């Protein structure tokens, strides 16, 4: 690994209020998660777009898109896609593949978009990062306000009860010659993942922290926002949600 992969003079970011902005903007995040199952993700998007019966050339917002891999796939299905993310580095990388129907922008999910969309997807547990619960409600409201009159939104979150029951406390992963030491635990109604590794003789420590939000929590937020929860699924095949056994909590709303 080259030394310019360290984008931070201060590498212990676990105590910052915006850990997500820092960690997601470092190349190490993309290295650690480079082997995610994108085939499964593409099947999920096939199922989701078919279920929603989106119009031809529908405008889709991929909210918290990272480097845009899923935006690119949705675009390949014929949709006009905008990928939005807080990470300037990720958007800069994704923008290299932009085309007339594939757009990328730096965007805070708490803010309502200027445009209106036929569908807004917030995929793969890209929610629940904020310290203030009010920011979660702001995000729900912003998603709702960025839909057109017939639009649908999808939040794909982890099923907290399943995750906690199957939590792997410690794990070591070697990716691109870097040994990542990972610890997971639950504290203060959050699920934590501590990530430690050394690269080019420098020690790094990052902490992911996601609120342990359950279906009842989302239902309350949607009720407060005046949002109608249309359907709930428990996996990427869009099968029924079971509180203890489903791997995902997938919510469709208008």
Automatic annotation (TrEMBL):
CDD domains: AdoMet_MTases (cd02440). GO terms for molecular function: methyltransferase activity. It comes from the Bacteria. Coiled coil: none annotated. Keywords: Methyltransferase, Transferase. One of its GO terms (biological process) is methylation. Pfam families: Methyltransf_25. Residues 60-151 form the Methyltransferase domain. This is Class I SAM-dependent DNA methyltransferase. The lineage of its organism: Bacteria, Pseudomonadati, Bacteroidota, Flavobacteriia, Flavobacteriales.
């Amino acid at each position: 690994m080259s030394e310019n992969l360290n984008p931070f003079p201060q590498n212990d970011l676990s105590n910052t209020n915006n850990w997500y902005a820092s960690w997601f903007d470092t190349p190490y995040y993309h290295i650690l998660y480079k082997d995610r199952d994108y085939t499964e993700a593409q099947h999920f998007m096939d199922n989701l777009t078919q279920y929603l019966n989106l119009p031809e050339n529908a405008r889709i917002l991929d909210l918290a898109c990272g480097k845009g891999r899923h935006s690119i796939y949705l675009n390949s299905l014929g949709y006009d896609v905008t990928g939005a993310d807080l990470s300037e580095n990720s958007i800069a990388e994704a923008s290299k593949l932009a085309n007339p129907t594939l757009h990328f922008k730096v965007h805070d999910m708490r803010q309502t978009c200027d445009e209106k969309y036929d569908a807004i997807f917030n995929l793969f547990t890209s929610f629940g990062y904020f310290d203030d619960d009010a920011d979660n409600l702001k995000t729900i409201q912003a998603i709702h306000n960025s839909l057109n009159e017939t639009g649908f939104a999808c939040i794909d979150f982890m099923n907290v009860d399943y995750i906690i029951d199957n939590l792997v406390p410690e794990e070591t992963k070697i990716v691109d010659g870097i040994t990542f030491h990972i610890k997971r635990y639950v504290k203060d109604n959050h699920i934590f993942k501590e990530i430690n590794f050394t690269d080019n003789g420098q020690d790094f420590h990052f902490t992911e922290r996601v609120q342990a939000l359950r279906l009842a929590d989302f239902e309350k937020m949607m009720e407060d926002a005046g949002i109608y929860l249309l359907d709930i699924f428990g996996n990427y095949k869009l099968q029924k949600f079971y509180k203890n056994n489903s791997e995902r909590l997938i919510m469709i709303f208008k």
